[in-house]
Amino acid sequence: MRAFGEPDVLRVEKVPRPSPRPGEATSASRGSGGIPHQGHRHSHRRPSVLQKDRVSPRTRRRLHRSGRGRRCRCRSSTRRTVVSPCGVHATAGNVRRAAQGVSTNARTSRCSASSFGAPTPNLSVLLPTTSIRCPTKSTWRKLRHSRPPVRWPLAQLYAAVVDQDSTVLITGITGALATTVAALASTFDARVIGLTRRPQAVHAGLNVTALDTARDDLAQALIETTNGKGVTIVIDNVADPATFDRYFPALARGARVVISGAIGSPQPPRPAGAG
Amino acid sequence: MPADTLYLRSIALLGVRTASTRVVQDFWNLVGQNNFRLPHGLVHEETLESAAHVHADMTAGRTAGHVVLRVREVGR
């Protein structure tokens, strides 16, 4: 299924047998969902973070009985982790932290998915670089005390879940709220792109890539600015429908759009009797 | 609103008007303990008498950043 639509979009096609690239493993998938997103997840072209830690209890028990794996007993995740025979495990959170480089115990794995001995669809692709060693109790205690939990000091950033991998697009970047949001997003090492009708008025100290809202190729400019990845977070303080339509095509898959203002929207009608 | 695109591309659309007490406290902790400040030159101080002029500038889109009106109380 390569398109969204009526049942006639379904096609039966022959596809080439997947060949793993260096660092990847293949496995047999006996079934998959019918929606495009699931089909994409099982296409072996893009490893999904969530894909790696969805290990069913039945799979965990089977691995434990077979001696090919054991349940992780570290305090980081006792419920959703399987440890391979060489002592390497992967959870969604650890994989994400390792990929972001913020995990102090992130290191190159010594095993691959095949070490799990589990040809399950949910462990179909496991990159060695996203597996990390299970920390000991003392190591985990140090990590827990050395890394405070992420606190977002503004409702917009809290709703947007801004982190250092985010590319944040902020509209009305010369405004008071937008400048504060941009400065705070920079403290998370996020990349900030600002939209305004006056790019020359954007303060240089904000470390913002300013784009003119009025340019015709705004979506294309945003895609180029993000190196083709698209914008992952939008904090829209203006809510101008025309601007929304122009930046929307440049959003990445899974993007979050936070609307926190409406000065650019048409004024709502006054209630009857209002002065 | 392209509703089907929101679904197909897993895009979330949220509206935010208020903040929780914890978020507000985190903000002031960032200001007080970690010395978070806006870059120099983004906060402009004006007199209370110039409020009308400042408002006109903001409406016309001629300001950038924050404008703070200084209020002087009698006897202080």
Secondary-structure topology with pairs:
The complex is a heterodimer of chains A (275) and B (76).
Chain A: H1 36-41, H2 49-53, H3 57-66, E1 70-71, E2 82-83, E3 88-89, H4 92-100, E4 132-133, H5 137-146, H6 155-160, E5 167-171, H7 176-187, E6 191-196, E7 209-212, H8 218-225, E8 231-236, H9 241-247, E9 251-259
Chain B: H1 3-8, E1 12-15, H2 21-32, E2 43-47, H3 51-59, E3 66-70
Essential attributes:
heterodimer; A: 275 residues; 2 domains; 5-stranded parallel sheet; two-stranded antiparallel ribbon; 9 helices; extended; B: 76 residues; alpha+beta; two-stranded parallel sheet; 3 helices; 3 strands; 36% helix
Characterise this structure.
The complex is a heterodimer of chains A (275) and B (76). With 275 residues, chain A is of the alpha/beta class. Chain A has two domains: 101 residues, no CATH class; 105 residues, NAD(P)-binding Rossmann-like Domain (Rossmann fold), CATH 3.40.50. Chain A is 27% helix and 14% strand. Chain A is built from nine helices and nine strands. In chain A, strand 8, helix 9 and strand 9 form a beta-alpha-beta unit. Chain A is extended and about 55 Å long. About 29% of the residues of chain A have low confidence. Chain B is an alpha+beta fold. Chain B has one domain. Chain B has a two-stranded parallel ribbon. The longest helix of chain B is centred in the middle third of the chain and has 12 residues. The N and C termini of chain B lie far apart (54 Å). The relative contact order of chain B is 0.12. The chains are: A alpha/beta (275), B alpha+beta (76). The interface between A and B is medium-sized, with 36 and 34 residues.
Question: Count of DSSP E strands of chain A?
Answer: 9
Helix content of chain B: 25-40%
**Total tally of structural domains of chain B:** 1
How many distinct beta strands of chain B? 3
For the largest interface, the chains and their residue counts are:
A-B, 36 and 34 residues
Strand order of the largest sheet of chain A: 7-6-5-8-9
Oligomer: heterodimer
Distance between the termini of chain A: 57 Å
Q: What share of the residues of chain A does DSSP label as strand, in percent?
A: 5-15%
Helix percent band of chain A: 25-40%
CATH-level-2 architecture of the largest domain in chain A:
3-Layer(aba) Sandwich
Class by SSE composition of chain A: alpha/beta
How are helices and strands ordered from N to C of chain B?
HEHEHE
CATH class of the largest domain in chain A: Alpha Beta
